[in-house]
Structures are given as C-alpha cells and as structure tokens.
Amino acid sequence: PHLSAILVGADGASETYVASKIKNCKEVGFESSLFRFPDTVTEAELLDKINSINNDSSIDGLLVQLPLPKHISVQRITETISPEKDVDGFHPLNQGRMVQNLPCYLPATPYGIMLMLEHEGITTAGKHCVVIGRSNIVGMPMSILMSRNADPGNATVTLCHSRSTDLSAITRTADILIAAIGKPRFVTSDMVKEGAVVIDVGIIRIEDSSTKSGYRITGDVDFENVAPKCSYISPVPGGVGLMTIVGLLKNTLRAAKGEVKFSF
Ligand code: NAP
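Above: inputs. Below: predicted complex with NAP.
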C-alpha cells in the first residue's frame, strides 16, 4: 500500500501529524510520499497535484492535511480527491455511503474510535451515546456511526454543539460520552455519570514553559478529575490520536485492495 500526503505551509501541529503518519506507514511496511507546498500555493496548483495523484496508479491513498490557508476552498480540495483514494473519508460520496451503511472509507478519527470500542469489548447497543461537536470530520460522522444498525453501533445518540442548552444535563445521561470540541478540559467531572465511558477526541496545544517545546498537549476532558468516575476513559495524548492513524492505515490497506469502488 502507498499513502500520499499533501502538506501546505509550516504549521507546527500539521507537521507533527504528517510526520507521524509517514513514520507509522514505515512501521507497518507501507510506502509513503509527502508533497509539500508553501502557504502561498494557489488552489489551482493544489488541484493539479491532486488530479495527477488521482491518475497515478502507484498511489493508493491520498490525504490533504488540514487546515489549509484561507484562500483555498477545503470543499473543492476534498471533492477533487478521488473517492477511491479518499483514505481520510472526507469526500461527500464516502460520507453519503457511510450514512446509508454502504461500502466506503469511514472518516479516520470516528473509524479509529469504533475500532477502540470494538477492541475493548464495550457494549454500545441500547446505550445512550452523547457526542459533543458536529464537525464533518469527527462529531457528525461519529453520531451516524454510533446510531447505525451495526456492532459497534445501535446506540441512542444525542448530538450536542455550541447552541445546545443545558449541556451538562444532557451529558450526565450519557453511558458513552464522546467529546470533540477543541476546548481544553471542557468536560468536567460534574458533567459525567458514574461508570460512563468517556472518549476524548480533543487535541489542544497549551503553553507550558516547563517543557522543552514550550507547549503541551491536552484534551477536551479534565482527565484527572473525570477518570475516577469512569468505567473507561481515553487519554490525550495516547488515545484517539493513535487510533486515528490506525483508521487511516486500515483505509489505505483497503484502498490498495480496491475494496471501495465507485462506478460513474
Ligand atoms: P471543530 O470543527 O472546531 O468543531 C468543534 C465542535 O465543537 C463544533 O461543532 C462546535 O459547535 C462544538 N462546540 C464548540 N464550543 C462548544 C460548547 N461550548 N459547547 C458545545 N459544543 C461546542 O473541531 P473538530 O475538527 O471536530 O475537532 C475537535 C477537536 O478534536 C479539536 O481539538 C481537534 O484538534 C481534535 N481532533 C483530534 C483528532 C484526533 O486524531 N484525535 C482528529 C480530528 C480532530 P458549533 O458547530 O455550534 O460551532
């Protein structure tokens, strides 16, 4: 399997994510290639590169690391990637098939979370799952996957966002709480039911002069105070971030096998 990544600009977090994806490819024996562009690249230049990778039969999967500079349309970029090489699972055709439970590439982060639930043997059927966040790449697909007639899945799902009222009252009813917000330690212990499963998707860099890099990574959950109440909790770092890479690599392997076909 051969995964290609496109990286625009020199954002520290994006550099780290792409570097670890490339490193993980090596570890599992996949080929990888990285195409770098300055943040002054035009949208047309990026689209050209994507089209040439789409037509390159030696490359199985392609991801464009987000975020992109403001002058580039994420939607146009996402829709230009061939859905058969869309191993991040962001293309509307893959997301549409996901909704209908048809063969597709699942978005890597929600896919990784489903694999984590499966691996830990956590029962989801009949449980109340509360997802905080409704982005196209995490919260929205997460809510769909948890409500699908599948295992894991079959949960009763509530999707919350910044306009939800009395969030704590909702989250306290969650058997499974998935936080994908991007706000450090947003989920506090009073928001969590005793025995709940808590999955922290957030990755936030906060300044910390005591570290060599000058920052540290934290999640959306106040881990130290929430953990004692939970039956399971995923840490940050070392939880969903790693599983996202697993989802990406599994999608790349499936792409190399040609498992998802679109005929049009
Ligand atoms: P996003 O597009 O910014 O979405 C954040 C969501 O949180 C939005 O739906 C927003 O609601 C909601 N929200 C914000 N403030 C809220 C509040 N006070 N109460 C309730 N909901 C609130 O972010 P994202 O791309 O989904 O990412 C979320 C976090 O996950 C980030 O920290 C990101 O770095 C991390 N992430 C991690 C991985 C991984 O591999 N672990 C992968 C992707 C993302 P509205 O829709 O109403 O604005």
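The CA atoms of residues 54 and 87 lie 12 Å apart.
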